[in-house]
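User: Please run a holo structure prediction.
Assistant: Happy to. Please share the sequence and the ligand.
User: Here you go; the ligand is hydroxy diiron-OXO moiety.
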Amino acid sequence: MLSKRMEEAINDQIQREFESAYIYLSMAAYFDSINLPGFAHWMKIQFQEEQAHALKFYEFVYDRGGKVVLKPLGQPPVEFQSPVDAFEQTMAHERRITGHINDLYALAIEEKDFASQSFLQWFVEEQVEEEKNASDILEMLKRVGDHYHTLLMIDRELAQRPAPAETQADTASE
Ligand code: OFO
């Protein structure tokens, strides 16, 4: 059984995961608006991943006898100065999310909630990947500078990002 504190903290995290999804969909809209469909595709996959994260928390709450209470979503950013700006915001956002996952983990330790600690381990590792993905693309973009041709090459590469179902087949069964 989830404690009330843990249940509330996870409900807050469900909200953050959906807010993350909303932010990345907003970034996808920005990239579509400047004709970079590969970047937009990458962000739409990110949008799907964040929804999968939210659902993973949702299922866990019910697996542990808790109750999901959905909260309102904030307005996502809609103005981006450049692809570098969008990925700088992505990087900063993922670092904040890592902080929240760490706080959840710390709460699970404090409450001696071993099932939540085990469940959260997946998210601890996922955040390492989330930060690395954003950081790799950001570094690439910084090196590209104003070279539009290279930007288009990156766009073609990002268009290859597979859908979450192809990379997280285990998520549904977990
Ligand atoms: Fe759910 O990891 Fe990004 O925000």
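The longest helix spans residues 114-144.
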